[in-house]
Write a structure and sequence with these properties.
Layout (H helix, E strand, L loop, with lengths): L10 H35 L10 H22 L6 H14 L3 E5 L2 H11 L7 E4 L5 H9 L3 E4 L11 H9 L6 H4 L2 E5 L10 H10 L3 E5 L7 E4 L2 E4 L6 E5 L13 E5 L2 H10 L4 E3 L2 E2 L10 H11 L2 H18 L26 E4 L3 H10 L29 H9 E4 L7 H16 L2
Parallel strand pairs: 2-3, 2-4, 4-5, 5-8
Antiparallel strand pairs: 1-9, 6-7, 8-9, 10-11, 12-13
The structure holds pyridoxal-5'-phosphate.
The site of pyridoxal-5'-phosphate (PLP) has 15 residues, from helix 4 and helix 5.
Length: about 425
């Protein structure tokens, strides 16, 4: 049978075909309009984008290959405790900080504990420090049976104020006199990524025969304008302590810490203390602990160390953006007091912390809009329930207490984009202007 060629369909049918073809196009257009209106609606009630306080996945995405390769090597070697990776990482941190010794430890808390033990702080001694910090500092001092002699902060930097320390040492309140006489260590904390004012603190330490432990948990790589030039946080006192908690500028895949020192005998003591005080196997010279850093952490951290300087720079760029964006508003931006002093890392912004007149309102609004923010710290150490036996009272450290009422940390991690920062600024200002 011969197959006839198909005749052209009549015009009406042609048009019907055309209509059928257009139905999906119209449907997609309608869908687009509806979702656009929906988005517009949610724009009014929520921020336009989610901005986490920290996005570790963004960092990992850039380093996945490098990190997996070294982790694989550790898995193949099956040596997990204090091996070649820890040694290499220690050598790299020591060189980075310009000191001869770095000792890998299990956390920043254990670094503080080991540092205090290495300086023979024990029951009956006193340690001078700040009430506006993370609990680890006070926890380590009190666990050793020592008394934390607190001095207030400088309201500009949030760091231990040399004037307050001087006043404490020269004119202690009656109740504290006996502890001042027992003061053995001065322990400033380089909070949020900016150094405490070390020159006058070191002077006081010399004058009163105190050893200095720097808590540089939040400030690895930060510089201080020492008379001899830029000095890295942790390298100025007898021992400097770092934390590699994941949220730090140099963060591990779990807990980790380190202590650095210029002193050979302190370095030896730290190495001994981290293995239960034993120099030779099963012979214990000191009462130490298990304060060891493991190979997997060291391997990851050593990869990240190579990127640390560029992350610091990005954090600073973000801080500059906020500084400019909040200029002339009610937001009091952090002051980088060593900027312009010929330092690269005058501040490394582990946290970008502003002061706000109505913090609760801003905090609630940001959280409701999926913008990450956090309060570091909501209560000073002298008012912590487990430290009430120390005898401190509300009102003892007005600057620290005021800071706990006003501070708010905003996202400042390196991978943050300008759009994200704009969203943060817009939301903060909107919350402040809302009646
Ligand atoms: C100032 C300060 N000191 C000490 C620590 C304790 O470090 P880690 O959490 O590694 O024990 C931290 C960490 O959060 C800290 O911020």
């Amino acid at each position: 049978m011969r197959v006839m060629p198909e005749a052209d369909p009549p015009l009406a049918e042609n048009t019907r075909n055309l209509n059928t073809k257009f139905i999906p196009i119209f449907a997609s257009f309608a869908f687009f309009v509806v979702s656009f209106l929906n988005n517009l609606n949610s724009y009014n009630s929520r921020a336009t984008m989610k901005v986490p306080l920290l996005d570790l996945k963004a960092q990992y995405a850039q380093l996945r290959g490098e990190i997996r390769a070294v982790m694989d090597e550790v898995c193949e070697q099956q040596q997990f405790i204090l091996g070649p990776r820890v040694q290499a990482f220690e050598a790299h941190v020591a060189a980075y900080c310009g000191v001869p010794h770095a000792v890998g430890l299990s956390s920043g808390t254990d670094a503080l504990m080991a540092a205090l033990m290495a300086l023979d702080v024990k029951a009956g001694d006193a340690v001078i420090t700040t009430p506006f910090t993370f609990f680890a500092v006070l926890g380590a001092i009190v666990r050793l049976g020592a008394f934390p002699l607190l001095a207030d902060i400088d309201p500009v930097t949030f760091n231990l104020s040399p004037e307050s320390v001087r006043a404490l040492l020269r004119h202690p309140r009656e109740r504290l006199k006996k502890y001042v006489a027992k003061a053995k260590v001065l322990l400033p904390v380089h909070l949020f990524g900016q150094c405490a004012d070390m020159a006058p603190l070191l002077d006081l330490a010399r004058q009163y025969n105190l050893s200095v432990i720097e808590d540089a948990a939040q400030a690895i790589g930060t510089e201080y304008p020492a008379p001899s030039g830029a000095a890295k946080a942790g390298s100025l006192g007898a021992i400097g302590c770092f934390s590699f908690f994941p949220s730090k500028n140099l963060g591990g895949f779990g807990d980790g810490g380190m202590a650095i020192t210029r002193d050979d005998s302190l370095a030896a003591a730290l190495r001994t203390l981290r293995v239960h005080g034993s120099v030779t196997k099963y012979r214990h010279e000191l009462l130490g602990g298990n304060f060891r850093l493991d190979e997997l952490q060291a391997a990851v951290l050593d990869v990240k160390l190579r990127h640390l300087e560029s992350w610091h720079a990005e954090r600073r760029t973000h801080a500059d953006f906020y500084d400019r964006a909040f200029q002339g508003t009610q937001v009091r931006t952090p002051r980088a007091v060593y900027a312009g002093k010929n330092l690269r890392n005058y501040h490394t912004y582990n946290q970008y912390v502003v002061r706000l007149p109505e913090r609760v309102r801003v905090y609630t609004a940001l959280r409701a809009s999926d913008i990450g923010c956090e309060i570091y710290y909501p209560a000073p150490m002298h008012l912590q329930p487990c430290l009430s036996h120390l005898g401190y009272r509300a009102g003892d450290f007005p600057e620290s207490e005021q800071a706990t009422r006003e501070v708010l940390a905003l996202p400042v991690y390196p991978e943050l984009t300008e759009n994200m920062q704009q969203a943060v600024v817009a939301e903060v200002l909107k919350a402040l202007s809302a009646k």
